[in-house]
Amino acid sequence: MEQETVKVDVPVMANLFAQGKKPEYLFWVGCAGAFDERYKRVTKAFAKILTHLNIDYAVLGTEESCTGDPARRAGNEMLFQMQALGNIEILNAYEVKKILTICPHCFNVFKNEYPDLGGNYEVLHYTTFFDMLIANGTLKISSDIFKDKRITFHDPCYLGRSNNIYEAPRNILNAIDTTNVEMKRSKSFALCCGAGGAQMFKEAEKGDKEVYVERTEDALETKPDIIATSCPFCMTMLTDGLKSKNKEEEVQNFDLIELVAQALNL
Question: In angstroms, rounded to a whole number, what is the distance separating the alpha carbons of residues 120 and 111?
């Protein structure tokens, strides 16, 4: 309960810019991080970690809008470009150079698709960022609270196959000191959670089994205590999968950010 009462003053870009300050990183919260009740906890945990590590960052606050990624995936190219161009105008006005994301979908669209519209930034997903900080000694984790826990990591499509980021999340788990158990389908062979490509926002198609149920079965085969994710869509789908298997009381679903925050006692 004490962790929930910890307050963090999150710096807002407009306020800092008005003072003549230019933060090194813009933390792009994303729609899920701002509005989804479960993923808000991940956003708060990330802000606590950034503050704990004295990272020079800020958020856009009310000036942040959707990246337009779901619109493009659903086939509405005009809406995507409207969103993207509006975001690029704001980012460039604040002279943003580096962007931190917690959502792989935001990460992918900023890194690989915004440059076509004039949005050129150094974009880091938090897994790569944490991995870098662990390697240079900035992020030090000495806790052993997860030492007896079996944790299996689910590779998000937009982090793994789309951007070849496989080792960073596992390096984070190794730093936390856990028993890591790999699913049979992992890394480039990992199964999608079922929400990518705007599937999150449409009705299920005909078939024998939901994708998220099959992926949850992959995870449960490892007999985990915790299923670790690093994407809000994956978290939602695997949480639903655990509920469908009546395993939500036995197996927990945490984002890697939450595991790091708990290990740091934040």
Answer: 8
